[in-house]
Amino acid sequence: MKKYKTVQTLLAHASINPNQHHGFVNTPVYRGSTVAFPTSESMREGRQKYSYGRWNNPSTEALTQALQQLEGAEGTVLCPSGLSACTTAILSVVGTGDHLLVADNVYSPIRAFCEQVGQRLGIEVSFYDPTIGAGIVDLLKPNTKAIYTESPGSLTLEIQDLPAIVKVAHDHDILVIADNTWGTPLYFPSLELGVDLSIMAATKYIVGHSDAVLGTVSASKRAWDSLKRFHFSMGLFASPDDVTLALRGMRTLDVRLERHYRNATIVAKWLETREEVKAVYYPALESHPQHQLWKRDFKGASGLLSFVTKPSTQVAADALLDSLSLFSIGYSWGGFESLAMIADPKPVRSATSWEVDGHLVRLHIGLEDPSDLISDLEEGFARFNMLRSQQIIEYS
Ligand SMILES: *Cc1c(COP(=O)(O)O)cnc(C)c1O
Description:
alpha/beta; five-stranded mixed β-sheet; seven-stranded mixed β-sheet; binds pyridoxal-5'-phosphate
């Protein structure tokens, strides 16, 4: 595989092989299950680069190799969704009788997976305060096999001291898994920082256009063999159509992220000036509790942030979102467009507590002009204020 001096050139050139595709720049979508062999003997001897659709095909290979280079990984696998990439990473290295440490602010379906599937398989799971850093050493047990991190965390965006956690883990022969969907290897080179299994919900920034669901796991040297075998045994496969969309998304990842970063910073700073807002959670803000860690370990920030409103009724908070015209209300993020949703971190925590009055609004800041987004949010706050005071009159 070629080596590239810069990530920008890598994104533009990785897995471009026109001479293998009649001169066409992009790898075509190879849909297929059966791959024909010229003779029975060649099948027996496995003397063919591609043998069966599920195992490998030129489309999935093009994305896998591009990601492997981007991540600086020993190997990369593709999964049918981001969540399946998370669970694949876990189950590739953790089994019955093992102990798994999971960040308390983790993407909540992972908590559900641990509590349901993990429990049934006899995996012991404990959740830890994401701001624990090197203090995680006190939570280790003789059977601790892996630490599952996500930095910044879903909804509340705490940044973890990953290098400190990696150091403790490796001193005790424990693997570190990181969900790197928010930072991507462009802004958070997780494998370089010592992480063993780096996950992305490619659904978000890799695909980048909200038109496919896909996950990736990239491994360090010591985790690759287990990951490769587990992924193969489970029969995991990603559709060549979606894979092709992801590879196309990757070409513009750097320019899109740069714009998300710029726009989100502008909107976050503006939100901080609003009377209606109690707190803004965006690691690039100096007010963020782990801003220094972010500055040390990250090369940028993406488009996802949260803020908490001053205490209000649900009606007022809903009206804030319902009156937005440039933000859609919806799950997921990482596409070109802006999104908003209300979420409650309280019920999805156990090692820490969330005692903040007010509604948590999560925003994905898209590629629109940020001044348009701010005008839109101004209208939302106007509506919020109207209902906020109306309610006070009603109840007083
Ligand atoms: C969305 C998301 C996932 C899951 O991705 P899907 O493709 O929706 O399954 C996993 N981790 C994080 C941090 C996410 O935001």
